[in-house]
Amino acid sequence: MNLPNKLTMLRIVMVPVVVLIYLLIPQDFCVVSQTNGLALRDILAFLVFAAASFTDMLDGQIARKQHLITSFGKFADPIADKMLVNTLLILLVYTHQANVVAVLLMIARDLVVDGLRMLASQHGKVVSAGFFGKLKTVLQMFAIVFLLLKNWPFVYVGLPVDQILLWGATLASLWSGFVYFVQLKDYVLESM
User: Fold this and answer.
1) Is the distance from CB of 88 to CB of 144 less than 8 angstroms?
2) Which distant-in-sequence residues (6+ apart) come within 8 Å of 155 by Cβ?
3) Transmembrane ranges (predicted)?
4) What is the pLDDT of residues 162-186, one digit of tens each?
5) Phi, psi for 139 (deg, rounded to 5)
6) Region of residue 151 (phi > 0: left; psi between -120 and 50: alpha; otherwise: beta)
7) For position 191, what pLDDT does the model report?
8) What is the pLDDT of residues 32-71, one digit of tens each?
9) For the chain, what are the domain ranges?
């Protein structure tokens, strides 16, 4: 197994680690900031998320630079990304930090787009992420960071950057899902 694939597997292993952090460490244990309730659990989850996000960036760079792109990597990398992001979004809903409607919409969009991509691949068409799909990913990552950190430092000025980013990611997610559907609707509608 090459280094990029090992990094992808490491990212998958980090998912249950962040779940254990959230489920085993009480929110009120070792509170760092009374203003926004930032505690040890939040900081540890942020560190795991940051490390996992770094491995995502690193495995892609190494795979492209050293020509180590494999079928396993093409398969496992997006799964690792979705496992990490969707798990964290669900945990943030569980702790009432993220809006359940926003998270459900983003997860539903991912399922539809994955289905569309599989259908297109059966016809030999590969669909890469467009601008809004990439924007969705960036907004999701930043939303998760600010949600994990309880909107620090913007909590001190009363600006809900975490929620703005979450809803921005939701809108970009829905729009990119619509774009995918328009691009691939012929494959869906051909069997009707």
Assistant:
1) yes
2) 35, 36
3) 12-31, 83-108, 129-149, 164-182
4) 999 999 999 999 999 999 999 888 8
5) -65, -40
6) left
7) 62
8) 888 888 999 999 999 999 999 999 889 889 988 998 888 8
9) 1-96, 98-192
Q: Which of 119, 116, 99 is nearest to 163 (CA)?
A: 99
CA distance 93 to 15: 16
Q: What is the number of other CB atoms lying within 10 angstroms of the CB of residue 133?
A: 19
Contact predicate 120/9, CB 8 Å: no
If one counts every other C-beta atom within 10 angstroms of the C-beta of residue 28, the result is 10
pTM: 0.91
Question: Exposed (0-12), middle (13-18) or buried (19+): which is 23, by Cβ within 10 Å?
Answer: exposed
**Of 90, 71, 182, 84, the residue nearest 137 (C-alpha):** 84
Cβ count within 10 A of residue 50: 14
How many Cα atoms sit within 13 Å of 90 on the Cβ side?
Answer: 13
